[in-house]
Amino acid sequence: MRPVHLALAVVVAAVWGVNFTVIEIGLDHFPPLLFSALRFFAAALPAVFFVGRPKVAWKWIVAVGLVLGVAKFGLLFVGMDAGMPAGLSSLVLQIQAVFTAAVAFAVLGERPTRIRVLGMAIALAGIAVAAVDEGTTGPLGAFALIVAAAACWGVSNVLTRKAAPPDALNFMVWVSTVPVLPLLALSLLVEGPTRDYDALRALDWQGAGTVVYVAWVTTVFGFGAWGLLLRRYPASTVAPFSLLVPVFGMSSAALFLGESVSGLRWCAAALLVGGVALASVTRGRREVVHPVDGAASPVAVGRS
After folding, report:
1. How far apart are CA 275 and CA 120, in angstroms?
2. pLDDT score for 281
3. What are phi and psi of 24, to 5 degrees?
4. How far apart are CA 142 and CA 123, in angstroms?
5. Residue 85 reports pLDDT greater than 80
6. Which residues are CB-neighbours of 64 under 8 A, at least 6 positions away?
7. Which residues contact 276 (CB under 8 A, 6 or more apart)?
């Protein structure tokens, strides 16, 4: 990999890692479901007018939009709003690789190798350690919401695998059009029109900046740069850089939000990142990487 592209891969991982800190800041300005709706609205417009027509069937765009956009991001934002730390959220979400493999086995019949099973077991041990740490310092309910978000992410990865989009940025921009109205409806129903109206009326530059970051920097720039790298290099070369995301996520949360990182949390990070790295190993297969706001999950597909 050329030095400029190596630097770009690290920058994208940093952008996705810092994204969790920005979400935490944004949640001080917006209710979680409204914030998520604004994030997708800003990601879709005006980009949808520049990426061209959808390159996959609408059924896949709608399915991924609902599972990823409404379920995964809704649970993520609500979980973080309920007290899940930004740094730990960036780490726990990496368990999506285990859910992806499990769903792919159940739905697609893709049998994991022994090495991948070992990696998933190590990653699950990391989640158990993180749960113990969170149980002594924070709400386990919020932790469970992030795990549920990771499960939804795993389902969306398999749906994306079936859709096989030829252009990741085009696909993500069109997917971003789907969750806006459902999330707005849920926000009005759950969070209430008064709370939403007050948040929009009090909008300041910091609040607007968080929406711009999570939508344009994380999605438009992140996906564009990641897609460029995937067009130039094998996915097996690009995918490992996604493992830097929780490193940047935990570091930025500690730096900007003052989040402490306990010894147990570092242990959980080592187990989870190491396990995901091992679970991502494939032999004799081509990997398709689906990066979504903070990580990339390698999903192996046959050469056919």
Report:
1. 6
2. 63
3. -60, -40
4. 19
5. yes
6. 156, 159, 160, 163, 171, 175, 178
7. 94, 95, 97, 98, 119, 123, 243
Distance, in Å, from the CA atom of 171 to the CA atom of 166, rounded to the nearest integer, reads 8
pTM of the model: 0.87
In the 3-class helix/strand/coil scheme, how is the chain assigned residue by residue?
A: CCHHHHHHHHHHHHHHHHHHHHHHHHCCCCCHHHHHHHHHHHHHCCHHHCCCCCCCCHHHHHHHHHHHHHHHHHHHHHHHHCCCCHHHHHHHHHHHHHHHHHHHHHHHCCCCCHHHHHHHHHHHHHHHHHHHHHHHHCCHHHHHHHHHHHHHHHHHHHHHHHHCCCCHHHHHHHHHCCCHHHHHHHHHHHHCHHHHHHHHHCCCHHHHHHHHHHHHHHHHHHHHHHHHHHHHCCHHHHHHHHHHHHHHHHHHHHHHCCCCCCHHHHHHHHHHHHHHHHHCCCCCCEEEEEECCCCEEEEEECCC
Position 294: which residue type? G
Band of residue 55 on the pLDDT scale cut at 50, 70, 90? very high
Separation between Cα atoms, residue 26 and residue 179, nearest integer Å: 18
Number of other residues whose CB lies within 10 A of the CB of residue 290 = 26
**Region 168-177: what's the mean pLDDT?**
92
* Cα-based distances in Å from 144 to 51, 89, 96, 286: 36, 11, 13, 33
Distance CA 221, CA 293 (A): 11
Q: Which tokens belong to 131?
A: 């749960």
Residue corresponding to tokens 């706001």: 293
What is the C-alpha separation between 287 and 2, in angstroms, rounded? 21
